[in-house]
Amino acid sequence: MVTFFRWLVRLTVGLIVLTVALVVLAWYFAIRSLPDYDDTYQVTGITAPVEIIRTTEDVPHIFGASDRDVFFALGLAHAQDRLFQMTVLRRAAQGRLAEIYGPGALPADDLARRLGLYRNARASLEAQRPEVLEALSAYAEGVNAWIEQVNLGARGRGAPEFFLYPDEISYWEPADSLAILKLLAASSTVQMRREILRARLSMADPQRGQDLVAMPGEAPMPEYAAQFPGARLAAPERRAGAPDWTSTLAGYLAPSAGASANGFAAATGRTAAAGALLANDPQFALTAPGLWYLARIELASGGVIGGTIPGIPAVLSGRNTSLAWGITPAQIDDQDLYIEEVQPGEPNRYRGANGWTEFTTRRETLHIRGTDPQTITLRETANGPVIPGGHLGLGAILPAGHVAALSWTGGRGEDRSMSALIGLMRAQSRQEAAQAMADMVAPALMVTLADGKGVGQVLAGALPQRAPGHQSAGRMPVPGWAAQNTWQGLAPAPAALSDLAPESGIVATTGAGSGPDATLGHDRGDRYRQDRLRYLIDSREVHSRDSFIAAQNDIVSPVARALLPLVGADLWFTDEPAALGTPERLRQDALALMANWDGAMNEHLPEPLIYAAWMRALQDRLVRDDLGPLADELTELYPGFIERVFRNAGGAGIWCDSRQSAPVETCTQIARQALDAALLDLSGRFGPDLASWRWGDLHRARHVHPALGDMRVISYIVNLLQPTSGGESTVARAGFLGAGRNPWLNVKGATYRGVYDLADPDSSVFVISTGQSGHPLSRHYDNMAELWRRGEYVGMSLDPALARAAATGITHLEPARN
């Protein structure tokens, strides 16, 4: 017995020692990949010494003898801090995520291959302007120089993730940057997803289904099923479960994920310091590290500073010595789905405008970690690539014997969008910037501009040309064989939709619904945020940097202000006081709180939580009996729909009556029932004391690491979770997950914020949602997350002396000696 006990002790001690040794070894290899910012490297590809000066927040300031050397150093700096993220973005565009992640990434790879992101990027390379080709080449050489340093110096494979996801890190090519831009374009648009939703709503309720998405004054949409007489449509299916948000972010960006932003500016005559102001905050999915990376580069045309995306050699939002600019996804209607009939008995032929036609086909092999490769057949019609029914719920609207093809402005080669973006940051005036952006194809952008003489906005990007007889005007899928539905080509945005010299001296946009033309999109749910932003900017005659910061971080919900007086009109103060502890008293207390609320979605208040739960329960009660299983997939609030219902616009009040019951329910009854249901749910979560509830308890920002975020233990290190204010319709947008146990989890937001002051350029500020480094063990991995949460910023300066004074490290690059 004693001997057994001794051996048990020895085994226990041995296991402890072994565990400690393994932890120390893992720690050692992990920290080997942390770059030394105070080092000197001899590299091939530069003509003269280059300095990369890192400030306290790890923002690189790059100084070189030529633009080529500067772009080289930008590539090296991106790779030093975000190598794993860059390779994952490249894989997502190439359709090669499954090679490291395994079978779970197959749907993403399949869609990327069918969209042809990488193939079209390679075809676009030679179309770029000569100076842009040189920048792309120099940038790629800089990335590769760091990969060589990782290999030569045994620097932990460049990032700790590579130990868990073995990857042969191939050298960077110029086309890789173009592919990431294509992926960004595919991620920014949601038009394919919207078309599918409109078709499903029409199928679920042909008479009233479009009430959820119709614009005011819009002509009725065709009944979807009526476009395919005699065809058998799919039966509605209940969704298997809530989407795995982490899986959708496997590549940091995912097609049809959607993006937004605010862009606003004030000319010299509308500012206190007699210099133009501009603010911009691109909004994407929250990841760790975030999508954006702060950088300053010194070009021959002058210094440029702002937000970049690793893999793309351009400052996408920022300023130089003369000009400031910001980008906002324009959400034009840049995608159309076509339903193509497959010839019976001939699966390789489809019905074209002139009869039965052969699909254009090619075969590609998907390599999958841990299992055998899969070969897929990619088919195209005259309208574009065929998208299988498994993507975005497309199968629910496909008639039997039909497939769907996609026309998309970004789905072709000879795309000079990269030339436009690099030209933008070299421009010295609004006019030069507008000229540079004429090359833009996708993503379509509303570009906000400011210089010493004024402000303006330019709509940049290709617009599809639809025939006047198009069956749905681009709002829902249509038969692909009907000639009137086919695009007549692409055209640049008309000058009438841009304004380089507004009389008011003010411009402001949230991207969605930019302009009166229906070509610019059929979604106006964002109009509440647009109106709120415009109010904040127009309500002051004179602006300052601080007023722009306040507007950018505004958390008042215009939707709450619009809906609560309407929905609760017949509920406030209409009953006698109820006894404590009863559901009636809980409702009365909640309504009393809401009556005095100003609509601020403050994380420390209970009112935003009650409002959000109430509106979610209300919308579900309005639509569930009419739409059936489709109601489970309406994960966002449609405020225009609720407003139409409670105003009974066009007879929309009929949604309040439940089809399953004999009595005719009123909207007041439905509103009361929804509020009671919401309060019952919240009471079960937080107890009956309304005053103790907090919006931030459920509305927490989850910055998820796409590769490691679901791994036990490691997830606590790499993911960031923090309570946040704001909501889906606030200027400081905080998008909801919309499904699962906590549908109010904040998963989208402004991953970059910048405010540029041309009166005192050194007072300009910016911030990103996490930190500069993608290394979880770096102090720069999350050092800006708390600043971002509180609406604070770090300084932005183009003064070399200030950069050197704040330097925490200077990397020297020297031409390699032969």
Spatial sequence of strands, sheet with the most strands: 1-31-2-3-7-8-9-10-18-19
Task: Work out the count of structural domains.
Answer: 2
* CATH architecture title of the largest domain: 4-Layer Sandwich
Give the biggest beta sheet: 10 strands, mixed
β content, as a range?
Answer: 15-25%
CATH fold-level topology of the largest domain: Glutamine Phosphoribosylpyrophosphate, subunit 1, domain 1
Helix content: 25-40%
Secondary structure: number of strands: 31
Which CATH first-tier class of the largest domain would you pick?
Alpha Beta
Q: Ranges with pLDDT <50 over ≥5 residues?
A: 17-29, 238-242, 514-518
**What does the overall shape look like?**
globular
By DSSP (H or I, 4+ residues per run), the number of helices equals 23
Can you say what the CATH homologous superfamily of the largest domain is?
Aminohydrolase, N-terminal nucleophile (Ntn) domain
Cα-to-Cα separation, first versus last residue? 71 Å
Mean of all residue-level pLDDT scores: 92
Keywords: Calcium, Hydrolase, Membrane, Metal-binding, Transmembrane, Transmembrane helix, Zymogen
Family: Belongs to the peptidase S45 family.
Protein name: Penicillin amidase
GO molecular function, one term: metal ion binding
